[in-house]
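cron nightly-structures :: item 1 of 1
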Amino acid sequence: MQVSEIQKKTGLSKQTLFYYEKEGLIHPEREENGYRNYTDQDLQTLILIRFLRSLEISIDDIQLFLNGKLSFDQCLETNKIYISDQLNNLKIINDCIDSFQQKNLPIIPKLAEVKSYQRKKGLGYVKSTDTVSIGRVLTRSLAIRKWLSSWLPTFMILYILLIILWAQNISKTSILLILCPISLIIHAFIMGHNFSFLTFYTHDTVDKTMNQSVEFLRDGISYYEFKNWWAHVKFTYAVIFHKKEKLFRKYTYEDIEKVVIKTQKRKSMYGIQFVYNENWSVDYEFYFKDHQKFIFRYPFTLENDSQYIAIILKEKVPHIIDEHRILDAMAQGISLDEYFNTEE
């Protein structure tokens, strides 16, 4: 059989046939004019090779199999291990692709080295978005939950006022006219402060709330700065009604003049045991080329966002003041407490 005929019967290209011949898998005869002449045995061997290649068995293993030095089961087992390794590698690549897409990360190769975080279910704070952030970004679902939860203490206060007014023999209509506007004011006040109630228990003057947030995106940062409780009420409603973009400030990484990293050991209270713990925390100060600045004291970071943030800042911001080289530790996934304990 000539090359053209063997191509039709096997579906293999001319280059593939010559490659198999070069590797010693087949040995077609040569006619006087130099043309190759494939035998029926060559045809069967090529059909077998094509089947083995469909199982992703390597050329080297096929050669050993044809020479009787490797059994078919051994070929399959070897290939199974190879495919398993490939699947693991593909999963890593797929996770990396998902991470860059979902987190909207800037193109920094070192970010691919950050291990993916397995989000755990249970009590405690969880991230509200996939993007890398300082603080928890207020999303619509979180804002609605905040709006609803603020009504519980509001109703408790209204109930006390109702008892007081009722004891004064005030008519139902008057009570209703009094409590309706008061309820809206109380609800707004509580909604603007409910993330700050922890400070009343810890007696800590440092703002540790999640009212503020900074997102690190592909093209720059986007942040919301907490100004006062009423401004935050308006912000919460803007988030609920899909108007929050107007209240976020955005800067490209080129617009950041410098970032100052400071650390401080602060007392924190966790859980309901009213037990104080001392932990190191990072303060971020952003200075922009338009003479604006944003200072974030004792920010809240979740999962492995601190590692992402450190890598992004070191790569994207040329002027960083970091006296204790905190970003170097964060970029390696080292916690502040562990870092300072090692330094001591």
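cron nightly-structures :: done
The radius of gyration is 33 Å.
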